Hints:
Elements: H1 10-21, E1 26-31, E2 39-44, E3 55-62, E4 68-76, E5 79-87, E6 96-98, E7 110-111, H2 118-139
Antiparallel strand pairs: 1-2, 2-3, 3-4, 4-5, 5-6, 6-7
Amino acid sequence: MIGPDRTVDEATLQYLAQAFGRRPEVRRTSLFPTNKPESLVVTLDTDYYPERIDDVSLELRAYTNGDFHVSYREIRAGDRRRCRWGRHDQPHNARDHYPPLPDAETAAAVNRSFVTDLTRVIEETVLPWVDERVGTLWESDTN
C-alpha cells in the first residue's frame, strides 16, 4: 500500500510482465524485484542496439487510481540517459507529462495527454518511442 488512494495495480503489472515476456527484444522481466517492490523491470536485449549501448531497461509502476510511471533507462560507457512518461498529480506539469532525454529533468517536462489504459500507453506511445530511439542510435553517435 502506497497511500490511501494509491495502491499498486498488481494485475496490470502482471499482465504487462507476461506481454513483455513474449516479445523478442526483451531479455528478461522482473516483477516486484526486492530493490523495486512496486515495479515491473523490463530489460531489453542490447543485441538490438549499437555495440556502444551497455544496458537498456524500462521500469513500470501502475496504481489502481490510474497513476503510472514508465521510465526508460539507457547506459553506455557509464553515461546514463533516461526519460519517463507519467500520470500523477504534482505541481510542475499537468497530470500527464513526459520528462525527456537525456536526464528526465522535471524542468524539461512537457505536458502530454495519454489514453486511460496503461497497456495502450505502452503500445501506442512507449514502444513506438523505443523503436524510434533504436533507429536514432543506429543512425548517429551523438544521441
